[in-house]
Amino acid sequence: MKSVSQILSIFLLVVLGANAQQEKGITGSNNWLNNWTEFRPNKVDYGEANQILTGIISVNTKLIKKNKYILQGNVYVTNNATLTIEPGTTIISDSQSNAALIITKGATIIADGLETDPIVFTSNKSIKKAGDWGGLIILGDAPINKFGNSASVNLGLDTSLTNYGGNNAESNSGVLKFVRIEFAGKKVSGEENFNGLLLAGVGNKTILENIMVSYAAGDSFEIFGGDLKLKKMVSFKCNRDDYKFNYGTQCKISNSLAIRTSYLTSSLGARCINVASYDKKEEVDFSKNQTLVTASNLTLINNSNNIETDIQSGLIKEAIYIGENAAINFEKTVISGFNPAVILSDKIAVNQENLQKIRFEAMYFNSCKGNIFTEFNENNEDLENWYGNSIFFNVYSKGNNADTFIDFANEKIPDYRLRIGNITASNDD
């Protein structure tokens, strides 16, 4: 790795010089979690539904705030129709019928909530829990890396209505803004779950901002292919991955949160970020783009009050997992309280070519048991030499969460921005 380390200054000096002093983690002059988020959704009384949503919606339809809607079974928006949802509207999902809302390819959802009037999808149970209902699925015609540039979502759905993928990276599936999705992720069969929000083949004209997924039994956000931008996303205490990217996704995600707990996980693994290009090599077309995730100003946090004890007890795993042939570019991101911070697939050779596609710059690693490792390999000297080089401006700390974040312990509206002046320009681990 000596030859690899020597080329660092050649290809990064100019790029990183401007980043050293920029703010890390989620940013904002004010706490942008105010007003629209809900960190105690089980304590909210959403009232009784007075309207039913069921079957197929094939004409333009509008849901209005004064009504409360019960989502029954798999509801499909088809025939290029637009489903418009007024700010402040509540959609209560029926747990007995595996309720899910599917926006099919060509159709559109306009769920344009307000900071003071968010749109809410939640469970109809009096005592709500993760996996009470299905989730929200949006299907588009942006590129994916599967052969034929097309695939379908199963999950017990009508696969004739769940095709996604195409050639239109700039396609528009509508707007999701100031939206909450609570207690989704119902188990389908075996090891399959719905997710809070599945975005498959979604194009970059779709607006996806200020979306909170809470207590999902599957992944909070799962992205299959597409070309999209995510801004001010919040994943709160899900059982599986907070953000999962696969099948050639080209995604830019910024100013977003993942809040994990040591006591909610899955036997299949649960991470803040899972980046893959495929599940099986034979299903993908390597002439197409493989997955690339560009992330800036994320905060990935385990909300334990006693991180060291939880790590020793085996309750905490890695925050980020990178699969073979996937590429990432992370900068100004906080990773706090994991074991370790990052794991690379054992199929990724540690060499110059691969490490130039897996970039961590101006990061803040806090209270992690180790930083970056290859899967099944405890010797990470080469990786530490690479990412620990001062030219990357990565920072290491051992602070507890209460001292690291502005208002970590607030159960109602926490503030996960870093405390001012908490970062020092140190490269010591």
UniProtKB/TrEMBL annotation:
Record's superkingdom?
Bacteria
Query: Has UniProt tagged this entry with the keyword Signal?
Result: yes
Q: Which residues form the signal peptide?
A: 1-20
Entry keyword set: Signal
Q: What is this protein called?
A: T9SS C-terminal target domain-containing protein
